[in-house]
Amino acid sequence: MTITLKLQLASGQSLQGAPLQLLANGVAIARATVDEQGYATFDAKPAHSQLAVRVDRSILQDN
Q1: CA distance 43 to 29
Q2: Angle at 28 between CA 34 and CA 53, to 5 degrees
Q3: What domain range includes position 52?
């Protein structure tokens, strides 16, 4: 299955290049990187589980 997300921070800060993980029941099952338009696409096997996305916030900088 393919899952595509559009990510946008309320502050307007870009997430381009941010590494993301798709989690199924808390376990990483796929990885993606946010593109220049703010989209990330995950390819994963279909499963009956609770899904979540985790952002590695260490890449974000304070201005």
Answers
A1: 9
A2: 45
A3: 2-59
